[in-house]
Amino acid sequence: MKTSYSSLVSHDIQWCVRRMPKVVRDELQKRKSGAVLAGGFIRACIAGEPVSDVDLFVPSKAAASELADSLLGPGKRRIETDNAFTILGHGLPIQVIHRWVFDEPRKIVPSFDFTIACAAIWWEDDGKWISACDDRFYPDLAAKRLVYRAPDRNEDAGGSILRLLKFYRRGYQAPLESIAQVVARMLKDVPEVNFQKREVILSEGGAAEWEKQMGAVLMGLLREVDPAFDSNLILENGSASDPEATA
To answer: How many other CB atoms sit within 10 Å of the CB of residue 9?
Structure first.
């Protein structure tokens, strides 16, 4: 999906800035376009939803490590995963993303999987807050509509499916086309050998055996994304256990 950029309205920018942890605001102003806040924090602030964490983006993994070190202090803790350095102890977890890096802030916007996360804020050299968002960010957020962007990025198979489920707990709905595209993205990463065996499995064990084996493969991919995720926790009022993961 091609991105056409807009800007966040000034009221929303200031609201997001006021809700940032002070240490994040200070680091953004110090680093200017070398550090960008983007994604779920902005969506949650504007939608009036609980904020789960802060995602910061930088130009390189070295820059991510240096920023993470700057966020440390007494009583703070740093955790490294395949996606980010996470700093705990500032109230909200602060994630400095190193799996996806960008040399220009606007390039971050189209990297998210759903339009409602496609927004970024940073501090410019001329001393003011700058923003960028997908043209569909505001209308899709207002409608609580999950429009999948099929981003061109390295990602874990099934990640968008789990995020789709987690968005549902907040009352979001996805058009059928988006659901189909999310499923297609996951199937793209199913090992080819599983499809090569299809006719053999169907002839020997029937459709039920094929579905069982393919289901096990898909479950394995989903577990790799989030081993702790339990869809059985989507019980009352469509709620799940955790907020969405980094998008």
So the answer is: 13
